[in-house]
Structure prediction request, 116 residues.
Amino acid sequence: QVQLVESGGGLVQAGGSLRLSCAASGSGSKFYIMGWYRQSQGKQRELVARIDIGGRTNYTDSVKGRFTISRDRAKNTVDLQMDSLNSEDTAVYYCYGETDIGWEYWGQGTQVTVSS
Prediction:
C-alpha cells in the first residue's frame, strides 16, 4: 500500500519561511513525478510545484522565485521550501505522486497559515 506522509506545515508570519516534506513508502511508490498541490477555502486545488524523475521542475506563476521544490530519489522524499510567504499562500498543501503509467497518489494534507 502506497503512502505519502506530509510534515512541516504550520503558522508563520507574512514574509517568513516554511519547509514542507513528504515521504513516500510502500510497494509501487517509486514515482515518475512528485509534487505539491494546494487548496485554499472556496477554491479549486491547484498545482504549486512538481519535479520529475530527471529533476525537471514546474512552478505555478505565483510562487516562482519564492518556492523551491527538491527531491531525494534514494530516500523517496520531496520537499518544498517556501520563502517570502504571504496571505495568498494560506492553504492545505497536498503531496502528490504519479507513476510512469499515470496512477496518482495523494497525502492527507498539511495546513499552512500565513498571518499578515
